[in-house]
Fold this sequence. Notes:
11% helix, CATH 2.40.50, single chain, mainly beta, three-stranded antiparallel β-sheet
Amino acid sequence: xxxxxxxxxxxxxxxxxxxxxxxxxxxxxxxxxxxxxxxxxxxxxxxxxxxxxxxxxxxxxxxxxxxxxxxxxxxx
Length: 76
């Protein structure tokens, strides 16, 4: 059995940009991971990190060996 994948990425998403998710205009977020891969995932996976300014910071996403979303956390 393969271990889960850990993908680190930086996100700079303004509040107005994330508002498009609520309006139904956008459903996914696409970023370049620290290792150079482009990853696309449902915007709702990072909704918990939304502030009045938007979503900014370094994050770590965990995926199963089958590339299924497990979790995401904001790094200090």
